[in-house]
Amino acid sequence: MTDDTTADPREQGGQWYDSEAGPLVRPYAMTGGRTQPGPTGVRFDLIALVTLDAAAPDADDDIALGPEHRALVELCRPETQSVAELAAGADLPVGVVRVLLGDLLELGRVTVSRPVPPAQLPDERILREVIEGLRAL
Q1: How far is CA 86 from the centre of its chain?
Q2: Helical segments of 77-116, H only
Q3: Which residues contact 102 (CB under 8 A, 6 or more apart)?
């Protein structure tokens, strides 16, 4: 009989550890089996901008936040990030990040906004008229 207390921790529960990748946690475990962000109806597409809510309490004070939630909060702390940047920074799938952001939004930890669409250029004819008007001055 072997003594489990002296065994390498990676050998205990070997199905949960990959020697090259490290500990494995399935995405559905991080989201509690959910695939859609909460009932808020906010779209978390890749370019949606996520900002840490200044009025939100410190993430360390909330025991309801998991480690993945805390990682996203920390990534948003220095500056506004897009959903794609958060997924890359947290090394999580985008689908998981969307669900976690839905949780943070419902808890009032973050705000989500859409980037301002680029302004359409005015018609070339209007630009020529403006130039001609300026030259006439």
Answers
A1: 4
A2: 83-90, 94-106
A3: 36, 37, 38, 40, 42, 44
